[in-house]
Amino acid sequence: MQTWVRDARPEDAARVVAMIHALGKFERKPPSGATTATFLRDCFGARSWVRCLVAGLEAVPVGFALYHPAYDTNTPSHGLHLLDLFVEANMRRRGVGKALIRALARRCAAEGGEWLSLHTRADNSNARAVYARLGATDQGFRFLSFDDAAFAALAGGGSV
Question: Judging by beta carbons within 10 Å of its beta carbon (0-12, 13-18, 19+), is residue 129 exposed, middle or buried?
């Protein structure tokens, strides 16, 4: 069976959202607020924030890569940042994840980009090993975020 990869379509929304929920569960995160409506809004709406590739071995997508354009001021150059990559547990080790990453690299190059960036959980050694085998290097950065009350305070001008 050959792996296929393509741009997500609106009709893939429910399937991708189910995989987003599975990814959150795998990462031991609180339940995701992602819905078909939010996925459609954020990938296909008037102001899309992200783009998505889906991959499969048969007709149904079994993996996805969610990404957005990115920029590096040091080089200065363009690339893509991989936000989430997920392959259903029973479909792993069949090349689906690698196919998604390779397709994303080709997409980036076709759009004039020169690199891919991503972040992984510190405890996800399997993912880090796959990325390393494909040539990714650890840049030594820590991924931080302002969430919830901290974000509200910053955005609202209050103190933290």
Answer: exposed
